[in-house]
Amino acid sequence: MSVYSKALSFGVEEEYQIIDPVTHELAPDAESIIQEARLHLGNSVQAEIHLSQIEVATKVCYTLEQLRHELQRLRREVIAAAARRQKVVVAAGTHPFSHANKQLFTPKERYLELEQEYQHLAREQAIFGCHVHVGLGDRETALHVMNHARLWLAPLLALTANSPFWYGMDTGYASFRTEQWARWPLAGPPLHFSSLTEYEALIGALLKAGGIEDLTRLYWDIRLSERYPTIEIRIMDVCTTIEDTIMIAGLVRGLIHACVMLVLHKKEAPPVHQELLQLAHWRAARYGLNGELIDLYTMSTVPASHLIEKLLRFVRPSLEMHGDWEEISTLVYAMLCRGTGAVRQRAIYQHTGSLIEVARYLVAETARGTGYTEEERKTA
């Protein structure tokens, strides 16, 4: 039996905002909250570049139910730890109104070096993403999988677009986080590589030229992990609800498996130009599901829902093999009906006229499904 006829392992990293429950501004309390949360989570909770950010990582999972349990456990413990420090937690790609360049850096050598090197880019790094790892140990296979999967990153971004506000303004984007992140060197879609040799030659040249100090600074939207035997998709905004995270993680695993099948059947990925990939990603960031996206196989613009349907058709055999089709397809169609996180945030603002109400909504939605109650928060 082929290893690819068994369930691929997968896991999720989520970045959260720490917020003051009175002002609803970002709050620099990561160190104390991490210390508190590690009593239950160990190293599954980590610091990020700013003290108003925190990151969690699930264990290796094989089923959607395992992943759901992990996300519930991680969110519940982080929310509880924050409550004991009189703070709350939000999962969204940007904060509705706090100024990113007012955030304090985490006093660790790695982050202080990033500030020294990247200056204002690093100071404005108050953005929050979701990364999905899928187990794939053979790097040559993984590289060719990356060639195929990079053509499907834009619809993944469109489904998770969750950052419409920046500095108290509606940016007009569904994912303004994407535009902030795109300014970094070596961010965005990766190149098409003909072989692992070509890939390693580029990595060697980047290191030699001082373009990167280590491979963790290779910020592509999809990349081969240097720490784990995985392929990592990093393009998504962090999702506010656990169910939305389940949706995207299941889709990503299905996509990677479907691309593995193409590689095993000697199907070559079309070497689409970087400019077209960048334009596809920009349209997804700008419009989310409320406009036309670029189908990189036909080189035409199509309604977002049509491209999502095409993605579902492509990954359906892989989702069915993992036993995920019914749940993931249901979650995707629900997203198409109710709108992305960005749409939901805007609806709250249009109804209330208050970005503080948007923040309150995000706090409640982040905790939904964790079993953590408002009463527990008030008595923490």
CATH topology: Creatine Kinase, Chain A, domain 2
The total strand number stands at 11
Morphology = globular
Q: Tell me the quaternary state.
A: single chain
Stretches where pLDDT is under 50 for at least 5 consecutive residues are none
Structural class: alpha+beta
Beta percentage is 5-15%
Helix content: 40-55%
Quickly count the helices: 15
Rg over C-alpha atoms, rounded to the nearest angstrom: 20 Å
Catalytic activity: L-cysteine + L-glutamate + ATP = gamma-L-glutamyl-L-cysteine + ADP + phosphate + H(+)
GO biological process, one term: modified amino acid biosynthetic process
EC number: 6.3.2.2
Keywords: ATP-binding, Coiled coil, Ligase, Nucleotide-binding
Looking at this protein, list some descriptive labels:
two-stranded antiparallel ribbon, 49% helix, alpha+beta, 15 helices, globular, 380 residues, Creatine Kinase, Chain A, domain 2, 7-stranded antiparallel beta sheet
Descriptive notes:
It comes from Reticulibacter mediterranei. It holds the Pfam family GCS2. With 380 residues, the protein is α+β, with helices and mostly antiparallel strands. It has a single domain (3-375), classed as Creatine Kinase, Chain A, domain 2 (2-Layer Sandwich). The chain is 49% helix and 13% strand. Strands 1, 2, 3, 4, 5, 8 and 9 form a seven-stranded antiparallel beta sheet that branches. Strand 8 (222-224) and strand 9 (230-237) form a beta hairpin. The longest helix is centred in the middle third of the chain and has 23 residues, at 242-264. The radius of gyration is 20 Å and the shape is globular. The termini are far apart. The model has no long low-confidence stretch (mean pLDDT 95).
